[in-house]
Amino acid sequence: MWVCGALCRTRAPAQLGQRLLPESRRRRPASASFSASAEPSRVRALVYEHHGDPAKVVELKNLELAAVGGSDVHVKMLAAPINPSDINMIQGNYGLLPQLPAVGGNEGVGQVVAVGSGVTGVKPGDWVIPANPGLGTWRTEAVFGEEELITVPSDIPLQSAATLGVNPCTAYRMLVDFERLRPGDSIIQNASNSGVGQAVIQIAAARGLRTINVLRDRPDLQKLTDRLKNLGANHVVTEEELRKPEMKSFFKDVPQPRLALNCVGGKSSTELLRHLAPGGTMVTYGGMAKQPVIASVSQLIFKDLKLRGFWLSQWKKDHSPVS
Predict the structure, then answer these.
(1) Do 187 and 277 touch, CB atoms closer than 8 A?
(2) Is 285 noted as a catalytic residue in this protein?
(3) Which of the following is catalytic: 48, 94, 172, 285?
(4) Residue 60 burial by CB count (10 A; 0-12/13-18/19+): exposed, middle or buried?
(5) 3-state SS assignment for residue 250
(6) Residue 43 · residue 140 · CB < 8 Å
(7) CA–CA distance, 301 with 149 (Å, rounded to integer)
(8) Whole-angstrom distance, CA of residue 308 vs CA of residue 313
(9) Which pTM was predicted?
(10) Given CA atoms 194, 104, 41, 145 in this order, what sign does their dihedral have?
(11) Domains, in order of start, for the chain
(12) DSSP secondary structure string for all residues of 277-288
């Protein structure tokens, strides 16, 4: 992918469907300068000054490292993924847009190098991840405010730490916030091999929930099915199978799901709704098909189905401590 060739010396293996970008990052205050330094700096970053096609608007630049003040933390980035939201943000069609010019990347993990005299929550050697999106993780190192960071254990896999802040959190909140699910209950989801989808499978399995995982048909379907089942998936079906009348027999043995998680939209989301139990909820958190969610009147009236949306960034705003 374009960003790896520009910034990385090495590649870390992908986790939860994402490509990883080792080493990257720097500071994000609105007043920060993103102009290239006169002399080549240790800090390299992928910067965009305008919204548009990432391959055209993102440039590799050398940045000056800000001085470490009282509440500042100097961080060396260890890994940063390329998430679809990163691309959408650069394109300018995401719900949250940083002030331009900006450094790309919303996720990642770094190691603390040094801290200011007023820092109490982190120390050199700690691993940290962004507290909120828009920090700009595609850089080799940076100086951040302590409040912009969250510490994570350093004994977990690097790839897990780098992708911990968005997909697993999204999966967890959707599983607990919309329906009161108990062990043995079923959920159904599309895009099951996505980062969120794989996190849903693992968290649901740990909570005793049964997952019905929908995939598009593909040449390596069996290999992917086996991988998802190794993560804890109970059932894996294709979009085509979900539309067949035989699914009625399937739901004689498997409880109808009370929760559907939609990341695709279009016909795929319509099929999820068709198989929801009466009174169930479909939560939409993405729209990969770029098609609207269509619900029939009968589903809304006679089955009393609920349509909800979820965006982790908004959830964080709604649940942030009052200062």
Answers:
(1) no
(2) no
(3) 94
(4) middle
(5) helix
(6) yes
(7) 46
(8) 16
(9) 0.83
(10) negative
(11) 2-162 (3.90.180.10), 167-315 (3.40.50.720)
(12) PTT-EEEE---T
